[in-house]
Design brief:
Layout lengths: L1 E6 L6 H11 L3 E6 L10 E4 L19 H4 L1 H6 L4 E5 L1 H8 L6 E3 L7 E9 L15 E8 L3 E3 L2 H9 L3 E5 L11 E5 L5 E4 L15 H9 L4
Parallel strand pairs: 1-2, 1-3, 3-4, 4-11
Antiparallel strand pairs: 5-8, 6-7, 6-9, 9-10, 10-11
Length: 221
């Protein structure tokens, strides 16, 4: 297993994610500059949270044109490995058309930073395989544009294919349709989530639930 955490101008969770993969899970991990395009040597590519390019225009709108993101469609099509977008990474994946739907401004029009409860809607995926179906977990969120939206036909397809992985439980902090917090593509190789698992991967910072997400992805069961 070899992983890469992409570094964009404005990334601020890149080293956190790198630490979890390399130091907590012992995965060979590189910090990959956004200009890189040689992705085939990696089994897992993470687009971390942050404010790529200052979130100018809208979150992820500029980063989608970065060379590393432009190289992702071929990487995904050839089945080289798994792609995970966390928060800003999720926004980039939707802007690039690699995940359906879009992420827009929170319904409150305010930046939200807090721990939220989430329900596991599908535990038959690498991202969620170490949780029980409908298990309630806690992870932090920190975003101003985290409200997931999609047209009705897209939502029906997501439900039908069980592509909705996590939903907000109890409180819906940003107004996402269907309380959606995390989804995947139809093939189960591209994942996007607004909560930050790297910020709750040790019990010192909460429950440690985030570590299970990374452990599932790298098959360290």
């Amino acid at each position: 297993m070899r992983a890469a955490v992409v570094v964009f101008p404005g990334s601020n969770c890149d080293y956190d994610t790198y630490y979890v993969l390399k130091d907590l899970l012992g995965v060979e991990t590189d910090l990959l500059w956004y200009r890189e395009t040689a992705l085939h040597r990696y089994d897992l590519i993470v687009l971390p949270g942050g404010f790529s390019y200052g979130d100018y225009l809208r979150a992820g709108a500029i980063a989608r044109f970065a060379p590393v993101v432009q190289a992702l469609p071929e990487y995904i099509a050839r089945g080289h490995g798994i792609v995970l977008g966390i928060c800003n990474g999720f926004q980039i994946l939707t802007e690039a058309g690699l995940l359906p739907g879009a992420l827009t401004k929170n319904i409150s029009q305010r930046f939200i930073c807090k721990t939220v409860k989430l329900r596991v809607e599908n535990n038959a995926t690498p991202l969620t395989q170490l949780f029980r179906y409908e298990e309630i977990i806690e992870l932090p969120i920190a975003h101003g544009e985290g409200r997931y939206i999609a047209p009705p036909e897209t939502l029906e397809r997501l439900k039908r294919n069980r592509q909705i992985l996590l939903t907000y439980h109890g409180e819906n902090p940003n107004g996402s349709v269907e309380n959606i917090a995390a989804i995947m593509n139809e093939k189960g190789t591209v994942f996007g989530m607004m909560p930050h698992p790297e910020r709750n991967s040790e019990q010192l910072f909460g429950t440690g639930a985030g570590l299970k997400i990374f452990r599932g992805l790298v098959h360290l069961v």
